[in-house]
Specification:
Elements (H helix, E strand, L loop, with lengths): L6 H17 L6 H15 L8 E4 H13 L20 H12 L3 H5 L4 H14 L7 E2 L2 E2 L12 E4 L3 H7 L1 H18 L4 H4 L5 H6 L6 H11 L16 E4 L14 E4 L1 H7 L6 H13 L1 H10 L6 H17 L3 E5 L2 E4 L10
Antiparallel strand pairs: 1-4, 2-3, 5-6, 7-8
Helix pairs in contact: 1-8, 2-3, 2-7, 2-8, 3-6, 4-6, 11-14
């Protein structure tokens, strides 16, 4: 289990994030995407023994694109929302043009031209937000990373990845709220937005394309049975986030299971008990090839390593907070350390 940063270290970290969001200069939304990308990759990747975390520039660029992929669709079928104080941010136009010919992210990653887009975004990250993110007024905070690449990696300073993991929900809420406010304030967006009640869902909601194909594939893989109670799925069941969406809002194929609607509703936003975790880990290992075929056919993104990393983070936090986990309908138990040997 990763070492939990001290309360004072976490507080200092959050103060730094708040200063960036509150006092930093934002002429485009790039810095918001960069912060969320760093936070998400801190969960999915494992820090080194000294507490640092190298993140490859290409990985950062890939996640940067993924964060904007949903946002470059026309809002309410009208226009793509502007993401800068001047003309449309250049990389938004590139991503929008790419998406216009390739509707799903999984399909886009399979195209040869994807690597060109990755390189373009990587160059943008180096020329703009990476070395400006920690600039607050005339002061450079440099609490997240040193402002140079090491073997084409951004290296998070010791303990930073651990703070992102410990305070992910807070960081995500702070960044998304600030990003939402930034987009709302831009004059060119006012005629597009109108009533803004659904803007948050548009910018940060879940993608649902491909779930029916995933459902059909999982039904065959699970031999027509509910993942949790093993009862027969008479009406096809519901696709459930094994690690709940409310805890980590990133859709990855290996995180999905098929369940009774009643089991899904009763589980709510809770983590599943270690007995279910053991089956989920075993399924993802043993059936990996079959699962990849299901996700490829549905053009749905997947990364088993990232899914396991997210699960480890979620169960670590749940154990530290003495959380209850879901066993079956009407039955919850306190999470103990039994889960640790399952996610190594």
């Amino acid at each position: 289990m990763s070492r939990l940063p001290s309360d004072s270290a976490q507080l200092e970290f959050l103060i730094g994030i708040q200063r960036i969001l509150g006092e930093g200069s934002f002429v485009a939304s790039y810095k918001y995407a960069l912060l969320l990308a760093l936070a998400e990759l801190s969960i999915e990747k494992t820090a080194l023994s000294d507490g640092t975390l190298p993140i490859e520039l290409d990985q950062l660029a890939d996640r940067f694109i993924a964060l904007y992929w949903r946002q470059v669709a026309p809002f309410r079928g009208k226009n793509v929302l502007v993401q800068s104080t001047g003309r449309q941010a250049s990389i938004i136009s590139k991503i929008a043009a790419f998406k216009a010919t390739t509707p799903t992210l999984a399909l886009a990653r399979g195209k040869r031209s994807w690597q060109r887009l990755i390189r373009d975004v990587g160059r943008l990250l180096v020329s703009m937000p990476l070395w400006k993110l920690q600039l607050v007024g005339r002061e450079r905070l440099e609490f997240l990373y040193d402002e140079h690449l090491v073997e084409m990696c951004v290296v998070l300073r010791p303990g930073v990845a651990a703070c992102f993991r410990a305070q992910f929900a807070v960081v995500q809420a702070l960044v998304q709220t600030a990003w939402l406010s930034f987009v709302q304030r831009l004059p060119l967006n006012r005629t597009i937005l109108g009533s803004m009640s659904d803007l948050s869902e548009f910018l940060f909601g879940a993608e649902r394309s491909g779930l029916r194909s995933i459902s059909d594939g999982l039904l065959d893989l699970q031999r027509g049975a509910c993942f949790y109670c093993a009862g027969k799925l008479r009406e096809g069941g519901e696709v459930d986030h094994f690690i709940p969406w409310s805890r980590y809002s990133l859709d990855l194929g290996h995180n999905f299971v098929l369940a009774h609607a009643s089991c899904n509703r009763d589980k709510r936003d809770m983590l599943a008990a270690p007995c279910h975790l053991a089956r989920w880990v075993n399924r993802n290992n043993v059936e990996d090839i079959a699962l990849q075929e299901i996700f490829d056919a549905a053009r749905f993104p997947f990364d088993s390593g990232a899914s396991f990393g997210v699960a480890k983070w979620a169960y670590e936090n749940a154990e530290k907070s003495r959380a209850l986990v879901w066993v079956s309908r009407g039955q919850d138990v306190r999470l103990t350390g039994d889960w640790r040997g399952l996610l190594v």
